[in-house]
């Protein structure tokens, strides 16, 4: 490898400018903002869980303005139908022809607000567009704009009238991020900004520049030992007895899929890229383990009865799987 420095110094500057513009509007939420940028660079999708009013919508909308991208928000409700998402065919009685009306999924940044409020048939309408980046309407395939990011939110405090997300769809989200309340100091700044003059966000990059950043991010080197670490972490969720974790086997009905391994590797690559390196280190991956794995584990009734959640089981696995030596440390 030629150098341990950033492969493109302009890329680091551009990303700093993007984050600076977003933080002119969004106060705090550094963990959430970092995960959004990781998902954008790694071309993954984000599932966000948090109570209302924590700037989830504002973050994605501001990011779209900063990147000169299109932003659309869909409020999921029980009466929503798949055509409201992907589009439909419309008959014109004057010409006697059908025309295609594309839905709101044709955008760069899509916010699926309270995704668990809609029934399974609507949730499954997102499956093809999230995985294939395309939509099929009346046998005709339409590509969504590139880059494309779906950020879905769900409310953890109101369960009445909600529909659990199918496992197949949950697995298509690269990460599940938990957003917490701001601190008192941050909330004071929020109140001052909201009640004062609104901040004007400047567009500092284009979607084509973001596509170039995504391409450069894929060039970040991930050592085979780090890839093996990701494989062992994910494998331990499926067969914990092989890793001297037989005591948690009864708490796991199903483990994580290979998408989790890919998400860990791509996430570590994106985080290393954001931190100014063209190679990934173990700490780039370790901070993402909870976000990548927590929504992919299916817990047993024993775990629910004992009050265990996915994060507690993941912590046990992380403590047991040895972290590889830092590659390229010298």
What are the salient characteristics of this protein?
single chain; 330 residues; alpha/beta; Rossmann fold; Helicase, Ruva Protein, domain 3; 2 domains; five-stranded parallel β-sheet; two-stranded antiparallel ribbon; 11 strands; 42% helix; disordered N terminus; ATP-binding; ATP binding
The domain count comes to 2
What is the CATH class name of the largest domain?
Alpha Beta
Q: Within the largest sheet, what's the order of strands?
A: 2-5-8-1-9
End-to-end separation in angstroms reads 12 Å
| Overall SS class | alpha/beta
**Helical residues, percent:** 40-55%
SS summary, helix count? 15
The CATH architecture of the largest domain can be named as: 3-Layer(aba) Sandwich
Quick check: average pLDDT?
83
Q: Give a quick account of the main beta sheet: strands, pairing sense, barrel closure.
A: 5 strands, parallel
Radius of gyration: 21 Å
Unreliable spans are 1-7
Strand content: 5-15%
N-to-C series of helices and strands: HHEHEHEEEHHEEEHEHHHEHHHEHH
CATH H level of the largest domain: which superfamily?
P-loop containing nucleotide triphosphate hydrolases
Shape: globular
InterPro entries: ATPase_AAA-3, CbbQ/NirQ/NorQ/GpvN, ChlI/MoxR_AAA_lid, P-loop_NTPase
Family: Belongs to the MoxR family.
Domain ChlI/MoxR AAA lid: 249-316
Pfam family, one: AAA_lid_2
Describe the structure.
- The chain contains 15 helices and eleven strands.
- By secondary structure, the protein is of the alpha/beta class.
- It folds into two domains: 147 residues, P-loop containing nucleotide triphosphate hydrolases (Rossmann fold), CATH 3.40.50; 101 residues, Helicase, Ruva Protein, domain 3 (Orthogonal Bundle).
- Strand 3 and strand 4 form a beta hairpin.
- The relative contact order is 0.15.
- One of its GO terms (molecular function) is ATP hydrolysis activity.
- It holds the Pfam family AAA_lid_2.
- InterPro entries: ATPase_AAA-3, CbbQ/NirQ/NorQ/GpvN, ChlI/MoxR_AAA_lid, P-loop_NTPase.
């Amino acid at each position: 490898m030629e150098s341990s420095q950033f492969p493109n110094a302009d890329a680091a500057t551009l990303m700093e400018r993007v984050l600076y513009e977003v933080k002119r509007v969004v106060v705090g939420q550094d963990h959430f903002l970092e995960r959004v940028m990781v998902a954008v660079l790694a071309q993954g999708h984000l599932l966000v869980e948090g109570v209302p009013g924590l700037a989830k919508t504002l973050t994605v909308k501001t990011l779209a303005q900063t990147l000169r991208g299109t932003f659309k928000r869909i409020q999921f409700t029980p009466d929503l139908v798949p055509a409201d998402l992907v589009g439909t065919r419309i008959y014109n009685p004057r010409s006697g022809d059908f025309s295609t009306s594309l839905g709101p999924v044709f955008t760069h940044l899509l916010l699926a607000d309270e995704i668990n409020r809609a029934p399974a048939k609507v949730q499954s309408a997102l499956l093809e567009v999230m995985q294939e980046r395309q939509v099929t309407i009346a046998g005709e395939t339409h590509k969504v704009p590139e880059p494309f990011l779906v950020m879905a939110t769900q409310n953890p405090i109101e369960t009445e009238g909600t529909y659990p997300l199918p496992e197949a769809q949950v697995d298509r989200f690269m990460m599940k991020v938990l957003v917490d309340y701001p601190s008192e100091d941050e909330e004071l700044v929020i109140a001052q900004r909201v009640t004062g003059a609104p901040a004007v966000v400047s567009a500092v990059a284009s979607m084509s520049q973001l596509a170039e950043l995504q391409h450069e991010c894929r060039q970040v080197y991930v050592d085979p030992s780090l890839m093996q670490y990701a494989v062992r972490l994910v494998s331990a969720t499926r067969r914990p007895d092989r890793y001297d974790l037989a005591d948690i086997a009864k708490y796991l009905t199903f483990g994580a899929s290979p998408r989790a391994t890919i998400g860990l590797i791509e996430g570590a690559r994106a985080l290393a890229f954001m931190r100014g390196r063209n190679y990934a280190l173990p700490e780039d991956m370790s901070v993402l383990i909870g976000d990548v794995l927590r929504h992919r584990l299916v817990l047993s009734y024993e775990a629910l009865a004992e009050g265990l959640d996915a994060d507690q089981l993941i912590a046990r696995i992380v403590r047991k799987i040895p972290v590889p030596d830092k590659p390229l440390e010298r």
